Amino acid sequence: MDWLHWLFYVGVILGAVPVMVMAFIWLERRGLGRLQLRPGPNRAGPFGILQPVADAIKVLTKEDIVPVAGDHWVHFVAPLVVFAPAMLVFTVIPFQEDGGLVRGLVPDLNIGILYIVAVSSISTIGVFMAAWGSNNKYSLISAFRSMAQVVSYEIPLALAILGVVLAAGTMSLTGIVQAQAVPFIVMQPLGFIIFFIAATAELNRTPFDLMEAESEMVAGYHIEYSGMKFALFYLAEYAYTVGISAIAATLFLGGWKAPWGVGPQVGVLWLVVKILLVFMVILWIRGTFPRVRVDQLMGFAWKFLFPLSLINIFIIAAESLAWPGLPWWLLFPNTAIALVLVVVWSGLFRLGGGRVQV
What we know:
- The chain is mainly alpha-helical.
- Helix content is 65%, strand content 0%.
């Protein structure tokens, strides 16, 4: 693969992802407006479709304010450290059967899911850099809280992904899609629930967005940022949201595969539809559920999701050893077992949790 192909692919990622993120921002704001009985953005362009463009122009033209006592170099680099991994995640998402966004351009990575987990963890360093470079005690406390939240929910998230890897027998995202004769959400509903909740918490989305809560640490670790630097944090958050939706669609919803055996040439369209479906669920949760307290946030990760993720691993491992090559129509008992475990463990957690409620 020559360098021109790489430059073209980088250009596609850098051009397509921000446009897709802006479209999802408009979709979320309009959707939340409907959920909350208000119109949402409706002034800039038809149906407010140009509102993200107007917001981008406004943010980019604002003054860049840097704290006098802060570390200017760290303050400058932190938004880039948070934003870059959000873009790198999309480089291994298989949008079509050969594993690349553009056919024949980028080969399939045999450790694609490991790459995603590793790259997405880099943003935690950027969060700490943003707080340290700001020289603001509230930002620093908020950054530590955000880092504790990410580390806590990274464990059940990785274990949920491990269940998919065990079932597919590969860490290649293309191989995981090809292994789904039936979507893994049918085989591993418990794993999907754990993955979805943990990913929502890592994204700082409602009901886990304690950084944005009115009673919490002001606006979080990025309180001292303005202008384009703040726009990078904002863009990275939504890019991660779209990326998690793409990963969920790839791991649990069959990726580019169409339900009626349509040819691979329309695989991109099917994957986009599935990404939209997952994103709309995230949007619906934001407009429905209230925020949790910080003690509930941490207890939910360690007392609920972590044990259930271990149970899910044991179920998948036992089935892989006892019934290798299990036909898809025999996977429904696993679905029933997983759902029963969710209900039973939820009851045990409430009975043994004292006054802490989730």
